[in-house]
Amino acid sequence: MSNTQNKSNLNGDVHIHKNTDSNSIDKKEDDRPEFETNLANTLLHNFGEKIKIDFIKKNRIKVNVQKENIVEIAKFISLNMKFDHAEAVTGIDYPEQNEIEVVYHLGSYEDNLSNQILALSTSAIREDDPTPGSDRTKLPSLRNVFYSVEFHERECFEMLGVYFENHPDNRRLLLPEDWADIPPLRKDFKIKGR
Amino acid sequence: MSELPPGIKLEKEDDKIMTLNVGPQHPGSGHMRIIVKIDGDYIVSCDPDPGYVHRGEEKMAEYRNYITNIPHLERPVIHDSCNILYPYCLGVEEILGLEVPERAKYIRVIASELNRCVYTLYWLAIYGIFLGHSTMFMWPTGDRELLIDLLEKLSGARVTHAYFIPGGVRNDMPANFEDVCIRQINYFEKRIKQYDSIFYSNPILKSRTIKTGVLAQQDAISLGATGSVLRASGVDFDVRKKEPYDVYDNLDFQSNTLKSGDSYARSKIPWLDMLESCRIIRNALEKIPKSGSVRVKLKPNPKAGNVETYKRVESGRGSLGMYIISNGKPEPYRVKISVGSFRNLICLPYLLKGEKLGNMPAVYWSLNYWPVEADR
Q: What is the rounded radius of gyration, in angstroms, for the C-alpha atoms of chain B?
């Protein structure tokens, strides 16, 4: 479990110098791309405190939201900002922060937005002894906002144990039906011989 | 109605519906199972059950460093291995701050276009044989050898090339590669143009695929379809055009779209893409710098800071993205592979509903679906 220190650093910088591109790839505030900044400002303008901007890079924005607000914000992103589909839903396990982060990479087929990816991230409580589906590791599903997340969320549920409430079909997808171990993409699941 | 004889019950309404398991052993389904419910000849519902070739690529990537990850990350789709390594290399280059030499960028484009054709021909062969068109199985399988030979000259391996590395490509092109490549590509282009008359103009193929499994434009968008499935429904989205990587913005090509959204259009787009690939390869061979290095020197066990990146490219099956998170260690903290096959799978239940069972292969294989890639 020693290789799992980074969550606080990854987000920590951002919370201290909020909106100043603390990510090491971006250099100065002047370099910030204008179009992406405007997109992020649209979100900040409408939701204010509910949104934390993680970074703004060329063609990439990442925002952090609480799970209570994610459906409302996702609806806004879908209807008003014209991001129409999800490219990926990634669960990331952070045992030391006791949370599982879920990142939705949202894309758009609109002409002016087609090079943009908006990463919408939220986090669920992590249980040390998981019982997928019946413990506190739960998030609201975005399936009614973005139809394309259906299989992605099913995968996230079996791989990390994040149960998506209001998802119509929370069954396993890739794992065997008789899988009895903990969700395999959690950091405490070790590969044999490594 | 008089009384039924003992032991015979009246048929319930539900008994009309039969559940059918297609796969995972059935060759028509690929390495997956499709559970279809049928009423007579018509499909009532369909539930794809992938996962029979899940190998935990994402988990394995957390245990290996950025360089040793290369050979196993190409495994999900070995005949399109350049394109699945492409976003990984772009991502690692971004987080390690590597600058790729100009010549390497062109070699990458050539290799990835060759690989796209190799994949497409393999898929087309399968599509042909499942529609009962065995010539369409033989021809692409034979023509594929031309391109495999070229890739073998480049990388030394016939399918699993492991040719792309962060910071360039593994080795330079051999001395006579450009001439051989031009010659083979010209011949190859002539060959695939003949596919039109034997396959795409074939009345039997047309009657089986035109107007079957129609995906409307708005549905393609909201289902998040990608690649040939999306472009067959009239949405012009090609990552090479919309978010050009490496030198694609210097090259002369177009992205193909068709409007009808049926199986026929979905099977034709990859073929049109192959013709475009020939153009790209010729164009890249003209513009490539004649000399120069093809890779930057990497440190042993390179480390990145606390950064993350999401890079995508256009693979043979649509947009292919890699989400890499680093926490300052030599190994990535998390690698997520977002593949076109997995994204297009959600279209299958939607398209098969109300379709005849006999049309299932025509619809299923037209999705340009590669089960091994979808399972990762």
A: 23
Which residue, B309, B302, B293, is CA-closest to B328? B302
φ, ψ dihedrals at B183, nearest 5°: -65, -45
Residue with tokens 């590791």: A137
Give the pLDDT band of residue B4 (cuts 50, 70, 90): low
Are residues A191 and B375, on separate chains, in Cβ contact within 8 Å?
A: no
* Residues B48-63: tens digit of each pLDDT: 888 888 888 899 889 8
Separation CA B289–CA B277 (nearest Å): 20
Write out chain B residues lying below 8 Å of A189, CB-based.
59
Contact B209, B264 (CB under 8 A): yes
- B333:A117 CB<8 A: no
Contacts (Cβ under 8 Å, ≥6 apart) of B298: B67, B98, B165, B166, B167
Q: What are phi and psi of B310, to 5 degrees?
A: -125, 115
Q: Is A103 on the interface with B (CB under 8 A)?
A: yes
For chain B, the distance separating the N- and C-terminal CA atoms, rounded to the nearest angstrom, is 57
- Homologous superfamily of A7-165: NADH:ubiquinone oxidoreductase Nqo5 subunit (3.30.460.80)
Domains and CATH numbers, chain B: 53-340 (1.10.645.10)
> Which chain B residue shows the shortest CA-CA distance from A21?
B307
Of the candidates B136, B120, B66, the one whose C-alpha atom is nearest the C-alpha of residue B94 is B66
b/e per residue A112-149 (b: at least 16 CB within 10 A)? ebbbbbbbbbbbbebbeebebeebebbbbbbbebbbbb
Its ipTM equals 0.85
Spacing of C-alpha B14 from chain mean position: 39
Q: Which residues of B65-99 are buried (b: 16+ CB within 10 A; e: fewer)?
A: ebbebbeebbbbbbbbbbbbbbbbbbbbbbbbebe
Q: By three-state DSSP, how is residue B301 classified?
A: coil
